[in-house]
Description:
Layout: H1 2-13, E1 20-26, H2 34-41, E2 45-51, E3 57-59, E4 72-74, E5 79-85, H3 87-92, H4 97-108
Antiparallel strand pairs: 1-5, 2-5, 3-4
Amino acid sequence: MSAMADHMIELLTDTDEPLMFIIFIPDWRDPVTPALIKLEDSLYCRHSRLIEKGKHQYITGRQHIHSRDSMFYDAVHGTMVFVLQNKAAVRTWQVDEELMDKLNQAMCSSRN
Length: 112
């Protein structure tokens, strides 16, 4: 995850074209992962949001062989969502708290 954060920050730095990443990573803080620190401290971090553990689900990577009832599992840890944008992306794609709220609601929707 740390190498991913480094690579995305490098890409954002190296272009004047609009570039944006939305990143979902575990909220592992004990001990804290270097990727969390890099993303939180990045000059390109425009928004971040914690989705609390137990309040959202993931889809297994094997959804093609699971039934709808067994392809979801409850998150046992929080998930951090980061929006990284360079200046051109900020002008091109508006990401605001309303959009972040909608994303939060989508992640927390019931699977039924």
